[in-house]
Design the sequence.
């Protein structure tokens, strides 16, 4: 074997060596072809349990952020009117799929004019223009929260908890879609009179609760809305300040100090939304995926709040609670 190389051998080897050094970084910068980009619009703020549950369920199904999916997040901070704007921004960024985690039913308005090429999965599609719940058609599907359907049940539970109540105020987000026919029918059957109180944003909470207190109803129902969910602690504090028993749509309100809530589990709903994302990424068409009806409902009661209000929860209600916060 020779110990020395000729001058021309060195000239040839040197460029090859440089090529080996320079090329790999350029190759490494190329995005892998199997990484799907998901746009995610959250109705509240980062870090909620339901949003974490969505990512955890995707991970359990084999979809890992930074490996085979990338999630581009946007947060509405309780303002459902921003959902269109945030969704449009994400669509403009060439996403492969759009997920809307909002309890304000505003996804349907965006869906009607969204590009038909982008699959969509969203919560509470009661305002969508769908062919049917079994076969929604188009490029969107989702998980129902049955918000309007459960209003009557919430009223019945509130009346059972406070049998002497005859007047109830209902807190609404002005401009938010809502259907209250079943609740009004239940109110007539139970002999309860309603008054609706609406607000635009959190700056009107104080004045709204002052109006409610002057009206002196026996209780208040806080409707399903991202605004109220996002500011649940403030609302619970105002209800306590004005000594108002309140019924809410979601467990998270009671965890924030509210008296009681009956509704769908948001955590469970987002986990099921993740299953739909998995199916679509594997080739299923949104048009063929039925709007899933909820299977998990929660009655949650805060006994600490009840005590502060001077209330005793009837055993017939307490025994049906899925969770009691002491």
Sequence:
């Amino acid at each position: 074997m020779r110990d020395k190389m000729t001058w021309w051998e060195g000239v040839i080897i040197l460029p090859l060596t440089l090529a080996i050094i320079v090329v790999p970084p350029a190759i490494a910068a190329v995005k892998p072809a199997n990484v799907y980009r998901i746009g995610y619009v959250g109705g509240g703020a980062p870090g909620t349990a339901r949003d974490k549950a969505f990512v955890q369920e995707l991970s359990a199904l084999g979809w890992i952020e930074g490996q085979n999916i990338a999630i581009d997040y946007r947060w509405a901070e309780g303002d459902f009117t921003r959902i269109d704007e945030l969704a449009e921004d994400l669509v403009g960024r060439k996403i492969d799929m759009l997920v809307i985690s909002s309890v304000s039913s505003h996804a349907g308005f965006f869906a009607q004019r969204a590009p038909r090429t982008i699959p969509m999965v969203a919560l509470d599609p009661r305002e969508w223009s769908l062919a049917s719940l079994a076969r929604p058609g188009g490029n969107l599907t989702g998980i129902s929260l049955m918000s309007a359907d459960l209003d009557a049940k919430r009223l019945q539970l509130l009346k059972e908890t406070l049998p002497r109540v005859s007047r109830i105020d209902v807190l609404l987000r002005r401009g938010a879609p809502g259907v209250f026919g079943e609740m009004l029918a239940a109110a007539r059957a139970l002999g309860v009179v309603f008054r609706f109180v609406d607000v635009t944003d959190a700056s009107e909470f104080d004045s709204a609760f002052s109006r409610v207190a002057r009206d002196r109803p026996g209780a208040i129902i806080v409707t399903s809305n991202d605004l109220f969910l996002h500011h649940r602690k403030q609302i619970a504090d105002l209800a306590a300040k004005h000594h108002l028993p309140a019924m809410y749509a979601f467990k998270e309100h009671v965890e924030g100090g509210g008296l009681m809530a009956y509704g769908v589990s948001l955590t469970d709903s987002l986990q099921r939304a993740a299953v739909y994302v998995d199916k679509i990424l594997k080739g299923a068409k949104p048009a063929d995926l039925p709007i899933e009806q909820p299977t998990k409902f929660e009655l949650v009661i805060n006994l600490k709040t009840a005590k502060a209000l001077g209330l005793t929860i009837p055993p017939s209600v307490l025994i049906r609670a899925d969770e009691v916060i002491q």
Q: What stands out?
A: The first helix runs from residue 7 to 28. The CA atoms of residues 78 and 211 lie 23 Å apart. The longest strand covers residues 36-42.
